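Review this today:
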Amino acid sequence: MTPAPGGIEPIGFTERLDGIRRRIASASDDPASVRLVAVTKGFGVDAVRTALDAGLTDIGENYADELVAKVRELAAGPEAGAGEVVGEIAAEAAGQAVVPATGGRPEPVWHFLGAIQRNKVARLAPVVSCWQAVSRVEEGRAIAKRRPGAMVLVQVDVAGLAGRGGTPPDQVEGLVAALRDEDLDVAGLMAVGPPGPPEQARAGFRLVSILADRLDLAVRSMGMSDDLEVAVSEGSTMVRLGRALFGQRPPRPGHAETPPGPPRTPMTAAGAHRAGWGSVQAFWGPDPALHPLAMPRTTL
């Protein structure tokens, strides 16, 4: 079948979604407990319609302008595209700007996944249901000012890489308490695994689950297209998937694609422990016996 004008080929999408559900089931004793956030960053609004028509209502975006633009397009009424092929055509038009309206489809539950810029919170607050990357109390304060009681997740830095964002593990408890004092619903923790083989993310994901248990937080947003099995096996309740659902992203205008590097050598768990766990090791100390990889998650 020829891809629809929005670029999302419906049969391919259905096959990828089925494959993702099999991957989750292979790593979880309770696959129904794992929420799937469809990350439409870099794709057109038709990707949102396709996800909604498939029953995926949790929609993730990384950029404020892109999220607001998609909300407006959905409110204005659907155009022809893969969403029409997957589900029924909706034709209701809305005259309001930036209001959640999808004309017959289920309404999306918007997750903001990107770095929180306080000067953009006012535009996002009316439509974002979950802020997944809160790393500082100042960010939470800006959200609470515009959306008291908003659901937020604290991003935990499990990679120790400059520019990745997140709070060091030993500061998570304090930040959670401070955000609760700001009248926010701190629902859980979020983490982005380090680049490299999926197994390299295991220790960090296990640490996030341990922290969430200690703080009595239900949501653990961990796992993306390449490492979702590791994340789910370590207790993830929410995975964020873009490429695995929609295929390869088109290049962003004005951004050249990065050529692929040489193949990586598969890394063992011991190698992952040595390779770059600055923030994890700072939290657990230098004793390998106290590292999360040395302890079964279910006994902690």
Observations:
- The chain is about 35% helix and 15% strand.
